[in-house]
UniProtKB/TrEMBL annotation:
Coiled coil: none annotated. This is Epimerase. Residues 102-213 form the NAD-dependent epimerase/dehydratase domain. The keyword Secreted does not apply.
Amino acid sequence: MPNTLFCFGTGFSARLVARKLRAEGWDIAGTTRSPDKFDALRAEGITPYQFDNDMPVANIAKALQGVTHVLVSTPPGGYGDPVLAHHRADLAALPAQTWIGYLSTTGVYGDRNGGVVDEDDDLLPSGKRGRRRVAAEKAWFDLGQRHDLCVQSFRLAGIYGPGRNALETVRSGRARRIVKEGQVFSRIHVEDIARTVLAAIARPHAGAAYNVCDDDAAPPQDVIAYACGLLGLDPPVEEPFETATLSPMAASFYEDNKRVDNSKIKRELGVELCYRDYQAGLQTLLDDILRKSKGITGEN
């Protein structure tokens, strides 16, 4: 019998994991908030189910029958983790050592004033979203310990990839260069998220948490400037963070300033990153855009 993955949330990162495992012969099922997306999931060989904060999966026993692995990418809300809120007992009934991967964020570490954090550091989240993530991680690990399930957490840095990157931001005219002195962010290409999750599935370690980021934490304004250079465009003028007009959500991303250590995924999981820094990632994304453009116009 093939392995079977069930995804609670089949978005940008989880969907790529699902595609890669599907290519290896796995059976895949996953949730979406809207039935309008069912056909798109079926086209990729994913059996679709509807799930939302206020809507549990119908006939969850059937949905989880034969499942060997679970991947959770749904974010927690003010009420806690939605999957556990609706389906804690159903997951607790899975066979012993069933693998469960939880996609968390590096926001659990909070602000370190530019310092380095690794998985052994205390979790000191700065804002509401970070605190919710810490609570959700704790709840998932607790589920694993209580019911002999192999729960692992993946603390993801800022995610980018095809259709979701600085090149697209520049091309859409939405790019800004907000400068906050000493501010750096860690990032990760979605391809390397999938690579890390697959490596963890191959080397399961109950209770493990992994930082998933590239090797180069960098100021956000530098990434925009590099993307502009690749596209042959002048970068937007720099705006001091202190006087920039930002939404509360956008401003919240500047609350935390840290460099995230990714050595554990290399040491324990043997991960070799496809894109060690944003320059390599953006260059490859641009090459893909140009290649597709030539294909559309019939050029060789």
